[in-house]
Design a protein that fits this description.
There is one protein chain. Helix 2 runs antiparallel to helix 3 and helix 4 packs across helix 5. The protein has two domains: 36 residues, no CATH class; 77 residues, Orthogonal Bundle (434 Repressor (Amino-terminal Domain)). By secondary structure, the protein is mainly alpha-helical. The protein has a two-stranded antiparallel ribbon with strand order 1-2.
Length: 134
C-alpha cells in the first residue's frame, strides 16, 4: 500500500489516543512505516469482537448473581483472561483456578488465596469477596 493511500478512518484506536504502525511504500517504492488510526473494515471487526467480549462479561456477571459461578469468573472475563492466563498470574495450577470458579469452593478460600486473585484483578480483597453480580 502506498503511504498516501493509507486509510485514516475513525476507529477504536482513535478513542484510546493510539495509532497502528503499518508497513507502506513511499513515493520511491521503498518500504517504510506509517501510522494509521484505522479503517472501516478493521473497525467493524473490532466492534464485533468488543461486542462479544461485553456479552461474555455480562453473562459472567449474571451467572455470579444467580450463584452459578464465583466472582473470580466475572473478574477473569472483565480482565479478558482465560483460565490458563489467570492460573499463571496467581501461580496456581489451572485445575485449581477452575475449581475456585465454583461458588461453594470460593466461599471456603482463605484471604491469602483470595488476595492473589484480587491483586491480579487490580481490586481490593473486599471487592472480590463481596461481589454479588448486582
Amino acid at each position: 500500500m502506498k503511504k498516501q493511500d493509507l486509510p485514516q478512518d475513525e476507529s477504536n484506536l482513535q478513542s484510546a489516543n493510539m495509532t497502528e504502525v503499518l508497513y507502506v511504500t513511499d513515493e520511491n517504492d521503498n518500504y517504510t512505516t506509517a501510522h494509521s488510526i484505522g479503517w472501516d473494515a478493521k473497525k467493524a471487526a473490532l466492534d464485533e469482537s468488543m461486542e462479544l467480549i461485553h456479552e461474555r462479561i455480562e453473562e459472567a456477571r449474571q451467572n455470579v448473581a444467580d450463584n452459578k459461578v464465583s466472582p473470580i469468573i466475572y473478574f477473569m472475563e472483565l480482565n479478558k483472561m482465560d483460565f490458563q492466563v489467570l492460573a499463571a498470574y496467581v501461580g496456581m495450577w489451572q485445575w485449581r483456578v477452575k475449581r475456585h470458579g465454583k461458588p461453594g469452593i470460593f466461599k471456603t478460600l482463605s484471604d491469602s488465596v483470595l488476595k492473589k486473585y484480587a491483586d491480579t484483578f487490580g481490586i481490593s480483597l473486599d471487592e472480590l469477596k463481596y461481589f454479588n453480580g448486582k
